[in-house]
Specification:
single chain, alpha+beta, Immunoglobulin-like, six-stranded mixed beta sheet, four-stranded antiparallel beta sheet, 13 strands
């Protein structure tokens, strides 16, 4: 469920208390945390918003990335052949996160040079997406398929179109909201907070996030993956019975 305003304020207040009350906090240049380290996907899941907040005890810019589990993605290209649109070429990429978001307190190009952003994989265009072993293609063709993968992920709401905003208060406290769409996949996600000064990363902190199915949906998902043969047979039986019932109803009408 989306985070309420009260929950956001409460979580952000915790960051302020940590900075003021904890003596150890003053000894650290960067402290960050999430309002929750878990996202539960239920049957009626429509997305979620989490608050990432923290404090800095030094000057610099704040950049946050949230990355989902890596996967292998196949990108296909369609061309018109004899008047029919057909898949004529495909390419597989490994190490593609199924979710990616980034936020910053200033435009990324003003925070660090391109080589630093690329090295830290800050920004979807800097993700290290590699073709699987054995894939061949000219550099221009690989770039074309790579860009198509990123466009598709963005269209699905899984890759951020533009960096989100990080709010900084009194040069000490910061916060940003991360939105997770309804199509979110399960797995371990990673939030990384960077403190960047003079174009260099001076501090970084990593925070994990678990996305998991719960309830009836989780039980069906587990059953489908652990007993795929039985699940497939049951699905066929249900489809046949549903079709028979529909036909019987229409005959009576």
């Amino acid at each position: 469920m989306p985070l309420t305003d009260q929950a956001r304020l409460a979580a952000f207040a915790i960051a302020a208390l940590v900075l003021i009350w904890s003596g150890s906090a003053r000894a650290q240049d960067l402290i960050a945390d999430l309002s929750s380290h878990r996202v539960d996907i239920t049957t009626g899941f429509t997305g979620a918003d989490l608050l990432l907040f923290g404090s800095v005890d030094d000057t610099g810019d704040i950049v946050v990335t949230v990355t989902g589990p890596k996967e292998t993605v196949t990108v296909r290209r369609k061309d018109r052949v004899a008047g029919i649109w057909m898949n004529t070429r495909s390419m597989q990429f490994t190490g593609a996160p199924n979710f990616y978001a980034v936020a910053s307190n200033r435009p990324l190009e003003e925070i660090a040079p391109p080589e630093v952003l690329a090295r830290q994989e800050i920004g979807a265009d800097n993700l290290r997406l590699k073709t699987v072993e054995g894939e061949t293609g000219a550099r221009e063709e690989v770039a074309e398929f790579r860009n198509a993968l990123i466009r598709r992920k963005r269209a699905q709401g899984l890759y951020a179109q533009t960096p989100g905003d990080i709010t900084v208060i009194a040069s000490k406290l910061f916060r940003t909201q991360v939105h997770f769409p309804a199509t979110l996949a399960t797995g371990i996600y990673t939030a990384v907070v960077y403190l960047i000064r003079d174009g260099r990363v001076v501090h970084a902190q990593t925070t994990p996030l678990v996305v998991e199915k719960v309830g009836i949906g989780a039980e069906v998902y587990t059953f489908a993956h652990t007993r795929s043969a039985i699940y497939g047979l049951a699905a066929i039986v249900i489809a046949v019975v549903a079709g028979w019932l529909a036909a019987a109803v229409f005959r009576k009408v």
